[in-house]
Design a protein that fits this description.
By secondary structure, the protein is an alpha/beta fold. The chain has a domain of about 220 residues: TIM Barrel (Alpha-Beta Barrel). Helix content is about 50%, strand content about 10%. The protein is built from 13 helices and 8 strands. It has an 8-stranded parallel β-sheet with strand order 7-6-5-4-3-2-1-8. Strand 5, helix 6 and strand 6 form a beta-alpha-beta unit. The longest helix has about 35 residues.
Length: about 325
């Protein structure tokens, strides 16, 4: 059995590229350790990691590189979550198997987008897809609901609940969708009323938010953390918010601190989501010198748009500077 997956802050890492469009492992290592040493769990080859632009062999090498880097730096107990969603059940199972062999502890699976319209005509196809891949995968899987990157297909809580009840190898969900907190409430109610869901798993089922923008209400409603791009920019501030939200009680000063961090990170998240991979790489290039280019056909963000994003992030940068020096 792999490393234990716990509630926490999960960081979807961008895949940096050199000018020749090869993976830039030097930048990747620096960024990985910048997050993982603070307790952020690395998520590779996801939406922000340009999974669709990576060859299967590159995905494997990336996971191996992350595992070796973590182990060599005293982080042997840090798990790795890898994007393993493919265009078919067969491909996803192959990707999950390869990820397991490379050292991933869990997989993250978004719905195949090409035939999303057809899948939406009969939701049993969606349920069966997740049941089949969970039953065949050697590592536990997260269900990833992200309509923006799956041709608008938005899984309801009823669909997700059906998958949870039909397989014990689904270890959690990541909800990056409208109405996510309402779905969280419904799914938590199902889990609370069905003890076998957790008793049939090696660790409790995880309900993860896809946006740090609403992490405070998410946690108040029984959620277990976030898989957010914002920790790539503000890892120290993100982890401070996480620490505060997990305290049994907060002093008035801590309540004000948590509210302030949440507000600033929420404002940044609103700007970050539409900017996507190109925006993330522009900002990280300006901040740390990492490669600015996504893989083609995507091109780097134009400077005018990029500088506008930097301006929107200014308050977050100031916040991060406060906590990075503590």
């Amino acid at each position: 059995m792999g490393r234990t997956l716990r509630p926490g802050v999960y960081g979807p890492l961008p895949t940096f590229f050199t000018d020749s469009q090869e993976i830039d492992y030097v930048s990747y290592k620096k960024h990985l350790l910048n997050l993982a040493t603070l307790g952020i769990v690395p998520v590779c080859a996801g939406s922000l990691g340009e999974a669709v632009h990576l060859d299967p062999e590159e995905r494997v090498e990336l996971i191996k590189f992350i595992r070796n880097t973590l182990d060599e730096n005293g982080l042997a107990e840090t798990p790795i979550v890898a994007g393993v969603g493919g265009s078919s059940t067969r491909e996803t199972i192959r990707l999950a198997t390869a990820a397991a062999q490379a050292g991933a502890d869990a997989g993250l699976v978004i719905l195949p987008a090409y035939y999303a319209a057809s899948l939406n005509t009969d939701h049993e196809q969606i349920i069966q897809y997740y049941v089949d891949i969970c039953n065949a995968s050697p590592i536990p899987l997260f269900l990833y609901n992200f309509p923006a990157n799956s041709a608008g297909l938005d899984m309801s809580s009823a669909i997700i609940e059906a998958v949870i009840l039909q397989t014990s190898n689904l270890c959690g969900v990541k909800l990056t969708c409208g109405g996510s907190i309402a779905k969280l409430v419904r799914l938590k109610a199902t889990i609370d009323s069905t003890p076998s869901i957790n008793s049939s798993r090696p660790y409790p089922f995880l309900l993860l938010d896809g946006l740090i923008a609403d992490l405070t209400p998410w946690m108040q409603c029984g959620g277990h953390g976030t898989v957010s791009g914002i920790p790539n920019f503000a890892p120290a501030a993100s982890m401070r918010l996480w620490a505060l939200l997990n305290k049994a009680s907060l002093s008035p000063d801590e309540q004000r601190e948590a509210s302030r961090i949440q507000a600033i990170l929420s404002n940044a998240d609103v700007a970050a989501v539409p900017a996507g991979v190109r925006g993330m790489k522009y900002v990280l290039n300006k901040r740390h010198g990492y490669g600015i280019s996504p893989r083609r056909p995507m091109l780097p963000l134009k400077s005018e748009e990029g500088e506008g994003l930097m301006s929107q992030f200014a308050q977050m940068f100031e916040l991060e500077a406060e906590y990075a020096t503590r």
